[in-house]
Amino acid sequence: MPFNSAGRAKIGSAAKLGRTKWAYAKYDFAVQGGAVGVISLTGDTIPAGAHILDCVVLVDTLNTSGGSATIALKVDDATLDAAVAYNAAPYNTTGPKKVDLTRAAAPVVPTAASVVTATVATAALTAGVFRVIVEYVEVA
Question: What is the pLDDT of residues 92-122, one digit of tens each?
Fold first, then answer.
């Protein structure tokens, strides 16, 4: 398997080999708080130029808010899930959920290396824990 200088396998090498990769991110109110604004989730960094193919949210603890908070998920400037109410799908029940970006949609490509971020708007979150799993591929 050919490797780039960072040691990561890429598609487009002379051998035409490659594979999808997975990034993991976590939001935990007890760790990151829930203030209105952009919250960097803890976890993996997705490289600039990666083609993001799919995304799943796993809700561990339901989000709560004293108002009508919304949550949007992004990697750099690439949207994984548009803003939705904190108590609407995919956040309204525990377990794994699909978001706006799926394999049926066109891949999104971040222009800079970035972690997954959650943009909280309208009102603050007051509780919640969820994980985000992102499938991507680097193209040489």
Answer: 999 999 999 888 888 999 999 999 999 999 9
**Domain that includes residue 127, residue range:** 21-137
CATH number of the domain encompassing residue 60: 2.60.120
Indicate the pTM of the whole model.
0.85
Residue 9 domain-assigned (yes or no): no
What confidence category does residue 83 fall into, taking pLDDT thresholds of 50, 70 and 90? very high
How many domains, in total, are found in the chain? 1
Query: 3-state SS string over the chain?
Result: CCECCCCCECECCCCCCCCCEEEEEEEEHHHHCCCCEEEECEECCECCCCEEEEEEEEEEEEEEECCCCEEEEEECCEEEEEEEECCCCCCCCCEEEECCCCCCCCCECCCCCECEEEEEECCCEEEEEEEEEEEEECEC
Q: Domain for residue 13, yes or no?
A: no
